[in-house]
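ugh ok fine here u go
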Amino acid sequence: MMKRLIILVPFLSFLVVFTYGQTEKWSLEKCVEYALENSLTIESGKLAIKDADLVSNSAWQERLPSINGSSGYNLSFGRRIDPSTNDFINQRFGNQTISVSGGVVLFNGGRVNNQIKQSKLQSEAARMDLEQMENDISLEVAQTYLNILFSKENAANARNSLALTQNQLDQIERLIAAGSRPRNAALELVAQVAAGEQALIMAENDAIIGLLTLRQLLQLDPTTDFEIETPEVVLPSDYDMASLNSEDVYASAESNQPSIKAGDLRARSAEIGVALAKTNHYPSLSIGGSLGSNFSSVAARQGEITGGMVVDQPGVFINGEPVMFGFFQPTFTTDKISYGDQLNENFGYGVGVQLDVPIFNQGRNKVARQQAELNVRRVQVDNLNIKNNLRSTIERSVADAKAAKLQYDAALRTLEASRASYGDTQKRYDLGVSNSFELTTAINNRDQAEVDLLIAKYDFIFKLKVIDFYQGKAISLN
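structure:
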């Protein structure tokens, strides 16, 4: 049987080393830090903050004037109006228009100011949401880390217990070989060694599964070597469980939990939303202006006189007869007007003021205001639910912590009694007044008490970490 133990334990150790390799051991603080840097949930929260910041920046820029430029080029065929002369022409030509316009709101019932205030609150609420995500992930990592430590310590106890049982089996086999004990005296211990081997395998496997769970939580690459530190975990001595009060913990949590702060910020944002909806009932005043010019491909101006002719035209009637007058009609050359000259000569601008007064819009503004008021109440109800759930969770956590302390104390007393019982049974077995069944029963009771104490210890530690979490304390094993 000892040969089986010698082969089994190194194999399990090799399996762990083969799975994770030789690597730097990660502390709880490093695991939490890595999780916060690589969590997709955290990345989503950061994107929400960026989006809220963009909305806030956009709201602030609503105070600035809007300026827009435009230009278009058109080809015209047939009888059309030349925009440079406003004359009808019957030929193909191209024309371009260029304009710049701008405007600024002088008054709109305080809408812009309220939008800026609301967007700032929403941006801050997004930051509180991210902080809450970080806290939740930190707590989840700590719980997984403690589970691994429990599995490792449980495996160490199982290994020690198996070694002790194997030693007892070797001893009884020597007595059997010497003829001091009957051959069936070792059967119970053989079964006990087999059970111990199973317990060791399960404990080692729990440690491996725990590391895999933590690896997935940290989103580590499967090829990354990974192992955690195994610090000495001791129960804190500065906790006065008798005076631990859920109301005190809740008062602390209400002032520092990001989810509560985020809810309060959203409540203030919802109230500003009502003020925003009311601005739809107010008139708005804005001022604007524009400037522009145009170009035509057929635009031309009169050039030098190249000649002329006398043209007869009826003037007046004398004695009922028309009297013709002649006048000289010169002929000219035409020069194309350059692009720059046209833009300069056709340049124009204007300014204006606009007043918009809401009179009737099918009740949309009234509905929008009523919806904003309903949203205020909805947010208040949500916040009340968050606070009620927090209070309920804290009350349960405090009760669990106190129960865990009592459970630990009871498990400690049980272990002391089971160890004493095992020692007494071992002595009586060595003297031959106790059988192997009684010895294995004492071993089982002792081993189970060891496991129960470990479970109670780590359960109590985690319950205390939950209390620390709600009080805003950093999660640490120190």
